[in-house]
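2024-03-11 09:14:02 INFO worker-7 job=invfold-0412 stage=load source=structure_tokens
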């Protein structure tokens, strides 16, 4: 009767486990499939220490990214942008206001100590009518402050 061996998965393996998990498998499965295909590596003491260190670094990086996003969000709270746009009788714009326009205006404010990328401005579709809009800006998966965008009739 063969004894199971412990391996650390390098990537998700269906019906076995997720990346970074330590799993026990039959020696033949490890020797003939997981190790040659670089799906796993042996769970030695040194590899376990390295895995734990990588996990700690990843957690610290995630926390740092989240805190930085919260700091940036505090700068965006209460920001209000006004666009003067040419519009027809029913308030329909000639043209539209896009996420790129909003990004240019945000970066041109001079009050932010970071650049906003246009992909962070989550405008589902370009603004094509006069009014007030709440536009979320995704700084992090869990941090989405909203800015007010006023579109008023201009000449």
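2024-03-11 09:14:09 INFO worker-7 stage=emit residues=155
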């Amino acid at each position: 009767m063969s004894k199971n061996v412990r391996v650390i998965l390098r990537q998700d393996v269906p019906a076995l486990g997720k990346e970074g998990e330590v799993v026990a498998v039959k020696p033949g499965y490890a020797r003939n499939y997981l190790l040659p295909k670089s799906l796993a590596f042996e769970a030695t003491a040194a590899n376990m220490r390295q895995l734990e260190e990588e996990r700690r670094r990843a957690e610290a990086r995630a926390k740092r990214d989240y805190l930085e996003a919260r700091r940036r969000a505090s700068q965006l709270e209460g920001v209000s942008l006004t666009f003067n746009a040419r519009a027809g009788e029913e308030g329909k714009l000639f043209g539209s206001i896009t996420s790129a326009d909003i990004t240019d205006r945000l970066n041109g404010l001079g009050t932010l100590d970071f650049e906003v990328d246009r992909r962070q401005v989550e405008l589902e579709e370009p603004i094509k009518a006069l009014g007030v809009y709440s536009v979320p800006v995704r700084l992090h998966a869990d941090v989405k402050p909203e800015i007010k965008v006023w579109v008023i009739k201009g000449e």
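2024-03-11 09:14:09 INFO worker-7 stage=report msg="Residues 82 and 150 are 5 Å apart (CA to CA)."
2024-03-11 09:14:10 INFO worker-7 job finished
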